[in-house]
Amino acid sequence: MNMSNMVVRIGMSMWIALLLTAVAVPAESASASAALDNLIKAYDSESAARAQCVAFAQKADEEGYAKAASLFRASARSLEVRLQHFKRVISKMGGVPKADIPKVEARSTRENLELAMKEEADRNGALYPAFVKQAKEEGAKGAAKTFNGAMRIGTGRSALYGDALKRLEGMKGDAAEYYVCPVCGYLTDSGLFKKCLVCWTPRSKFEAIR
């Protein structure tokens, strides 16, 4: 494997691991702005994830996995909606949202799905719970709510990646239709619903993405 490609591929996972080490500090030694700092870190992480999804969608199209490409495009839109939530709360707390997005080098669609699923698991299974804990300790209700929302939406995306991996050959052929809530970013592959399962936005307002 080319060393520069290896660095790009593992960079984001290592970044998340470093963040987990950084938040594992006693509450009494945490800075008063820990919640805001964590929001900015999360904004950076999800911005990078969105850039990955855009690149992964293009790669899936090139390989003939049109349905996987649809999933990545819908995921990119889901992340875009969540980024707006982070941006609003960061600004409200007096911060400036910023992202340092690394160059994305897509590999095979299978590997891209595996990476996307792993990074969602890292964020939603370990990183965000730690951020929620710190936000609650600070009394930063807006930050805690934003992390919880991102965690719930991200867990749903991860499940869709896992399902796509299980039936990867079935992801070839025509594009599939996914539905994204423009309010909270909830993502689903089923059109059989009346309202968003997270924020109750009517189905009529959902964006259909192929």
What does this structure look like?
The chain is mainly alpha-helical. The protein has one domain: Up-down Bundle (Ferritin), CATH 1.20.1260. 64% of the residues lie in helices and 4% in strands. It contains five helices and three strands. The chain has helices spanning 3-23, 34-63, 66-92, 109-138, 141-166, and strands at residues 178-180, 187-188, 207-209. A three-stranded antiparallel beta sheet has the order 2-1-3. Helix 4 runs antiparallel to helix 5. The longest helix is centred in the N-terminal third of the chain and has 30 residues, at 34-63. It is globular, with a radius of gyration of 17 Å. The two termini are 33 Å apart.
Radius of gyration, whole Å: 17 Å
CATH superfamily: Ferritin, core subunit, four-helix bundle
Which stretches of 5+ consecutive residues score pLDDT under 50? 1-10, 20-32
Helix content: 55-70%
What is the residue-averaged pLDDT? 88
Q: Going across the major beta sheet, what is the strand order?
A: 2-1-3
**What top-tier CATH class fits best?**
Mainly Alpha
How would you sum up the major sheet? 3 strands, antiparallel
Count helical runs: 5
The string of secondary-structure elements, in order, is HHHHHEEE
Give the strand tally. Answer: 3
